[in-house]
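Hi there, hope your week has been kind to you so far. No rush at all, and the record is pasted right below.
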Amino acid sequence: MLSAQTGTDASRDAEAALLERILAGDSAAFAQLMRKYNRRLYRVARSVLRDDTEAEDALQDAYLQAYRALPGFRGQSTLSTWLTRIVVNAALVHRRKSARLAEVIELSADPIMDDSPSPTPERAALRAQTRRLIEAKIDKLPDAFRTVFVLRALEELSVEETSETLGIPEATVRSRYFRARAMLREALASEIDMAFEETFAFDGERCDRIVQNVLRRLGSADEP
C-alpha cells in the first residue's frame, strides 16, 4: 500500500510533468490543468463577485495571467494556492471595474451530502430550492467572511492553506470561519443541514466554455 507521503510525491511529480508540457506549448496540457482546478477557482471568483457571468470572465482573465506567468513559477507555494491568489486578484479587479467595494473576501461552510441514492422529483426540487437559498445567504455574508467560507467549507482547504492563500493570519481564518457559520446557521435555520455539495454547481457546459474561451484567447486551435 502506498503511504500518504508517497501519494503526495506522486501527485507533485505528475503536476510537475504537466507544467513541463504546458511550458513546452502543449495546449491540451493547459486544458487539463484548467479542468483540474476549474470548480475551485470558479467558486473563489464567484465568492468575490457574486455573479456567475462576472466570475467566469474573471476566471478566464486569471487563467491568461497564470499562463503568461507560469515560466516564473518556482513552487514556493503549491500550484493551487498560486492560482487561487491570481483568481482572487483578478476578481477584485473586476469588482473595482464594476464600482463595487474593493476588499479581500472570505467564505466557509460545511459540505453536507444527501444520502438518497435516487431522489424523487419532489426531493430533487426541494434540494434545488434549498441550494438557491444557501447561495443567496452566502452572497449576503459580509465581504470579510465570504471567501474564507468557500475555501474552508466548500473546497475543504485547511486553516493553514486558507491563511497562505489569502495572506491573512490563521487566527483570522478561524474567527471568520466561525462567524460565517454562525451567521449562516442563524439565517438558514434548519435549511443549513441540507446539501452544500452542489452549492454553486459547476456543470460540464460552464467548464467547457471556460476552457475553450481561454484557449481561443491564447490563440490556440480548437482544444485537442
